[in-house]
Structures are given as C-alpha cells and as structure tokens.
Amino acid sequence: MRVEPVALPLAEPLDTARGTMTERRGFLVTVERDGATGVGEATPLPGWTESHDDCRAALERAGDAGSDADALAACEGAPAARHAVSLAFADAAARACGVPLYRYLAGGGSGDVAEETTTSAPDERVERLPVNATVGDADPATTADRVREAVSAGFEAVKLKVGARSLDADAARVAAAREAAPDVALRVDANGAWTPDDARRALDAFDASADVAYAEQPLAAPSLDAHAALRGRAPIALDESVAAVGLDAVLSADAADVVVLKPMALGGVDRTVAAGRRARRAGVEPVVTTTFDGVYARTAAVHAAAALAPLPACGLATGDALARDHAPDPAPVRDGRIVVPQGKGNGVAGPHDE
Ligand SMILES: [Mg+2]
C-alpha cells in the first residue's frame, strides 16, 4: 500500500464552521490486487471527519496491517482514512472483475454491502444521475438570476443556503427563486443555523410563497426530536446529524424524510451504499454528496449514487470548487445530469493506465 500526501487548491476560499479553507489536503492510497491497481482518496474535513494528522496516523497503521481486513479495521474511527483504503481495494477489485465501480458496489462486492440485502439489480446500466445546482447565498435579484441560469442549463433541482440572514431576507430570496422557476425543485440548507422557533417561522414563510422540496438541517445536529416535530411543515433532510449521531439514530427517531450521505464522512463508498439501502428500507430517501474532494473521491461518490439509483438529484457537481485536480474528470455534468463512468473501476485515468 502506497500513501502519498496531496493538496489541491480551491478555486475560491471556502468558509466552514472551522474557519476559511484555501486548499483541500489529504492522501492518495494506491494498492495492487490481482494484477489490478486501485486508488483511494482521503480528503479529511474536520467537523465531518478526523483531522489531517489523525488521518495520516490511521493510514500508517493500515499500511502496516497484515491483511486487507486488518487494514480496514485499523481505520475505524477515522472515516476519511477508511474511505481511501476501502476505495483503493474496491477500485482494484472492480478493475480485476472488469466492471465499473458502481456495478461492483451494487452487487455487494465488498464487506459492508454484502451484509445488506441487495435491492438494485447489479446488471443494470446507469448512464447519468440528476444533480442539483448550488445557488448559495445572495440577494433576491441575484438569487433569481442564478436559479434561471441553472434551469436553463438543465438542472431540475437547486439548493439555496439559508440561515445566515434574517428570516424576512431569506423568505424574500426563496420567493424570488420560486418566481424565477415555477417548476424547479427548491432545496434550502440552513446548516443547523436556526432555533426551533426560527425554523417553524422560516418554513411557514417559505411554504406561503414557495413549495420547498426539502429543508436541509434546519437545527443543530443533535436535535433529532425537534427535527421530527418539524416534518409536518416541510420535508426535512438531515446532513450534519447523520455525521454527528449516525444514520441509525436518525432513522430510529423518525427525524428525516431525506438523509444526505457523504462517503468521506461515512467511511467509504461501500458504507454509503449500505447506508442508502438501510435508509430506504426505513422509508427515507438517500441523497449522496461530496465533501469538496478530489477527482478520485468525487467520482467514487458518483458510483455510490449510481449503485443506489434511481434517487433524487445529488450534490455531486462540485468539481468546479477546485482550481486543480489529480486527473481529468471522467464524470462531466451535462443538462443537469452527471455522467457515470462506464470503464473499469472508478474510471479515473491514473497510474493504472500507464
Ligand atoms: Mg448540507
């Protein structure tokens, strides 16, 4: 197993709860199995995953492990490290089998998925997946312009950030977005900014002017019962809660209509597919998104979503967030849909193809 530190500059600085980021640092993991090379990516994002140092330490332990199972076990508690190691194994195995990664994942090709009931046919070809456009946070006129641009580029779902402005200002932005695009699926993401009282008022105001497809993470991550109580006002999607308390706690509390699954935070694409199936059995729709990762992890997230297809528009169109990448992007977005690579493994050109 080879572990290489990497850093990718962001196209624009990204504000997170832990400060402003200007680059995505992480590790590439390369393995050789059955005559095939597999590449995995760990792009830790503190707040969602372990720290960069803890990720490196876990990858060192994995590199010293005597078996693949021990290497994965060495990454427990370090989801970004486990993401890299499990992806490298799955990429190599899918290449050795001559199938795209999503077919390998859908067929229960790795440990965590094999424990789950297979619900999608592994033979089914998935060509493209709907993705959402990110409209961000801007004044009503700019928001309306961005929504119109997204719709004319073919996107059927757009996502607005809310919660940073007053409730009245957010309500005006959401109303402007709806006026600009009567049919688009409108999603709002508050990233846990609201109190329960704020959330009730905001969702009622949005409901009066715009039918929102869902409100993502209205309240702080641990508030499961309070999220459950909001579900009558608008469909509720939980993102930070899944990373903070785990999918099973979210499902048992009946806290969500939709769960946002981030492979880097869940510890791998195998676990993401298993989590998506578990959610669906509980009547909750999964959506797969990235954590502003490099091309190996981003494309793997596309495969995880394809293994769960059909599913609602996913947050997979994030390649533009990087100023530079490890390799060309094999999953371009066309007409609001991301292309699922059909070559062997993850489908990213790299050391395998030399
Ligand atoms: Mg979110």
Automatic annotation (TrEMBL):
SMART domains xrefs: MR_MLE
Pathway(s) annotated for this protein in UniProt: Quinol/quinone metabolism; menaquinone biosynthesis; Quinol/quinone metabolism; 1,4-dihydroxy-2-naphthoate biosynthesis; 1,4-dihydroxy-2-naphthoate from chorismate: step 4/7
Catalyzed reactions: (1R,6R)-6-hydroxy-2-succinyl-cyclohexa-2,4-diene-1-carboxylate = 2-succinylbenzoate + H2O
InterPro entries: Enolase-like_C_sf, Enolase-like_N, Enolase_C-like, Mandelate_racemase_C, Mandelate_racemase_N_dom, OSB_synthase_MenC1
Keywords, in A-Z order: Isomerase, Lyase, Magnesium, Menaquinone biosynthesis, Metal-binding
Cofactors required: a divalent metal cation
Active site per UniProt: K161, K262
Function: Converts 2-succinyl-6-hydroxy-2,4-cyclohexadiene-1-carboxylate (SHCHC) to 2-succinylbenzoate (OSB).
UniProt protein name: o-succinylbenzoate synthase
Native organism: Halarchaeum rubridurum
Gene name for this UniProt entry: menC
